[in-house]
C-alpha cells in the first residue's frame, strides 16, 4: 500500500501524512520492500522519490494484489444470509444532498443492518480514498471536457447526465435567446474559483462565441453562484441540479450548453459485495427520480 501511495503522491512526506505515520517509518518500510524484491525500486529526484521501471512494475502488481483481496472479501460477504456492516460513501458537495443522503435514508428502510458514513470530497480525493481502501463508494461528477482519467482498478456506474444552464434576469431572456451568450459579453459573471469545473465551463462557453467573460464573483460551489444571480448582481452558468425551484424562472431556455456526468464508482473487486450492490441499486433508483425531474434545461429541486 505504501508503494502504491508513493507511485501516486511522489513524496515520502505525502505518504506519511496520508497514512498518519512518520516519514522515517515510511522510508524504513520501503527499504525493507526493496530488499525483499531484490531490485532497485526507487531513485531520488530532488525532493521526490521516483520509481524505477522495476518499481513501477511492482506498484502495478501491488494494485492487482489489493484488488484480489477486495474480491476475496466480497466473495466471503456474498455468502452471508443478510446484508450488514459499514459502507463509507464519498460524494461531491451537491451529491451529498441529492443522492447520498436520500440513499442512506432509503437503504436504512430496506437494509437496516447496513450503516452508511458519508464524506464530502472532490472527485480526485474520493477516487484516491477508493483506491486506498478508505472509502467503499464514491459519487462523482465530471464535465464533458474533463480529463477522463484512468479508472485502473475501479469501476464507474453511470447515474445521470446533468445539463448546464444559464441564470439571468428574466428581462434579459429574449435578448439572450436571440443573440446567445454573446449578448452577455459586457455583463458581470459569477462562477467558481479558477481551475474548477464551473470556471472552466464558463471560459469554454464564452470562447466558443468569441468573448472573454467579465468575472467579478468567484465562489466555492455552484449554489453560491446561483444566489448571486438571484440577487441580480451577476449572470451565472451552473449545473442544472444546483438550481432550486425558487430560482427556476431565471433559467434561460433553449441554449445549447455542455453537461456533466454523475456516476458512482467503486473498486472492481467490491462488485460482488452485497452491501455495495444494495447501495448502488438504491443510488440508481434515487438518481433516476432526480433525472426524471429535469424538465427542459432546468431541474426543480426543493
Count up the helices. 10
Strands of the widest sheet, in order across it, are 4-3-5-10-6-9-7-8
- Can you summarize the main beta sheet? 8 strands, mixed
The total strand number stands at: 12
Mean pLDDT: 87
What overall form do the CA principal axes indicate? globular
Q: Extract low-pLDDT stretches.
A: 296-302
Overall radius of gyration: 23 Å
Q: What fraction of residues sit in β-strands?
A: 15-25%
What is the string of helix and strand elements? HHHEEHEHEHEEHEHEHEEHEE
Sheet/helix structural class:
alpha/beta
Amino-to-carboxy terminus distance: 43 Å
Q: Helix proportion of residues, in percent?
A: 40-55%
What does this structure look like?
The protein is of the alpha/beta class and 302 residues long. It has helices at 2-9, 12-19, 23-37, 53-77, 93-110, 123-131, 173-179, 197-209, 222-230, 274-292, and strands at residues 42-45, 48-51, 85-91, 114-120, 137-143, 154-167, 188-192, 214-219, 235-239, 259-267, 294-295, 298-299. An 8-stranded mixed sheet has the order 4-3-5-10-6-9-7-8, with helices on both faces. It has a two-stranded antiparallel ribbon with strand order 1-2. Strands 11-12 form a two-stranded antiparallel ribbon. Helix 1 crosses helix 2 (12-19). The chain is globular. The model is unreliable at 296-302 (pLDDT under 50).
